[in-house]
Amino acid sequence: MRGWTKLGRGVFFTAMLLGAAFIAWASLVYFDPNSVAPFVIEKLPVRFERLWRLSLKVHVAAALVTFPACIALMTRWVQRRRPLHRNLGRVTGILVLLLLVPSGLVLATEAKGGLWVSLGFVLSGLIVFCAMVQGIREARRSRLAAHARMMRHVFAQMSVAVTSRSLLVLLELGGVEPNLAYVVALWVPVLGSALVAEGLSGRLSLSSLRSSPFALRSSP
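The structure assignment produced for this chain is given below.
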């Protein structure tokens, strides 16, 4: 069982790394001063255009740093190196709370797909923000299990950047109506990721309880 769990973990992290690399490559156009990204052309005109454009660049830049950082923070290699984990976590937390989430909420007001997609982005952003704040509090209290639980929720929602894009491609290939596809491709990963993160936290807590020397054991 452990072998399958380890394999699944490796496949998942590999997929996230590949997804992060693809997103980074596709995002380079946002920083080219001599061209306008197709996404921007498609969205214009928008209300508060200067704020929206600035938020887009801030959000993309913050995501390019924080998403790979979150992937690294979830690995055993980084977690075993406490000074690295602590310092990288602090920088990531600051960028997420001050740049990534606020800029994402601005972009959500003009999300493609309408109100339901905007609400989905807002929900995901609020989960990230609240889980990050609570995770920082738990770390300062040295409640590491609770800290890890919150960080799993942060990472789960950030992984939506990859899973949502992948699902959207599948829905488009399946001929699903575009507006419906945008709603499904966002809400399914957002809610699914939250459920998986919470379920995984519960399973790990139960596993830790069973392995505790103080756990009740039936007599032979």
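Interim note for the steering committee: The CA atoms of residues 58 and 103 lie 7 Å apart. Residues 2-209 form one domain.
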